[in-house]
Amino acid sequence: MNEVKTSRPFQERFLDGFDRQLGREVQKVKPKRSHSLRKKYTTWALGAGLALGGGLSIPVTGHMHQYSKAATLAAAEATAQRIASQVAGGVQGVVNTVAESAAQAPAHIGTAMAEVPQEVAQIAEKARESFFNREVPFGSIIYNEAKKNSLPPELVAAVAHTESRFIPTARSQSGAVGLMQLVPRTGRWLGARDLKNPAENIMAGAKYLKYLSNRFGGNQEKAIAAYNAGEGNVRRFNGIPPFRETRDYVQRVRNFQRDLEQRLVGQVADPQGTAPAL
Fold first, then answer.
1. Could you tell me the CA-to-CA distances from 156 to 10, 51, 62, 187, 220 in Å, in that order?
2. Which has the closest alpha carbon to 94: 41, 154, 30, 51?
3. Which of 15, 191, 224, 248 is such that its CA lies 20 to 30 A from the CA of 207?
4. How far apart are CA 2 and CA 89, in angstroms?
5. Residue 92 above 80 pLDDT?
6. What is the end-to-end Cα distance of the chain in Å, rounded?
7. Among this protein's residues, is 12 annotated catalytic?
């Protein structure tokens, strides 16, 4: 029997046609899905960073490859619910989940998926910086000084609001001055020559918060309490002292910090929305 020769097997020719059709369909929907997924990941990553109490510090290594991005986004969406449930555990939970999915995916898809949290972390941090510049009084200074001292900008802003309501000329009966309400002696110790200058005052206040945070092993509540009642009193009571003023102070700082974090995440999720002034 003579063997019938064809240019290529039918299955290969069929799959070629299927791939071309699939490619056209992917190009139609890719922009919309990419935007939606980016917004989801940005909101989750930002929320995770706030839960950790610090900035997002994952380095950016590059963009996803053009030809694998559509497949990457489709695979990433399949893990969306698992990632969302880990946001409260911080950025590392998000990274681990995506990394696990990437390890189970084909090589070209897995490589691109591994870059998703890195790219989104940068986007989320840029959104955070932009939010402070627009929405928080002296927000640019607060953001930069907080980052220099590895502190959450929301914490520094909350202390400034509770101390002075962002009034740079505020002065207390005990002689504390400016936005962060520092006494001149403490200001000089921290390198501030003019506590009426918002930049110097915030610089010194952020340094003092960092000092207290280090003294109490990173415990924010103890650091906040010590900012109000003194380091000695916090050590004496091994925690927030039983002073009504200090307990109220810590609560007001924490409430403002949480409100600021919620507004920030809301702004990322809905950038067209307008937030009320502080």
1. 67, 16, 32, 16, 11
2. 41
3. 248
4. 68
5. no
6. 88
7. no
The partner residues of 177 in beta bridges, in order of sequence, read 171, 182
Here the tokens at position 48 are 């995770």
Cα-based distances in Å from 46 to 36, 94, 152, 202:
16, 11, 12, 24
E strand or H helix that includes residue 263 = helix 244-269
Structure-block tokens of residue 157: 């802003």
What are 29-76's pLDDT values in tens digits? 544 444 555 566 666 666 666 665 554 333 333 444 444 555 555 554
Alpha-carbon separation of residue 66 from 63, 73, 109 (angstroms): 9, 11, 11
- Looking up tokens 């989801």, which residue turns up? 40
Integer Cα distance of 187 and 201 in angstroms: 8
Residue 267 confidence (pLDDT): 73
pLDDT digits (tens, 9 = 90+) for 50-61: 665 554 333 333
104 has a pLDDT exceeding 60: no
The catalytic position among 135, 163, 200, 261 is 163
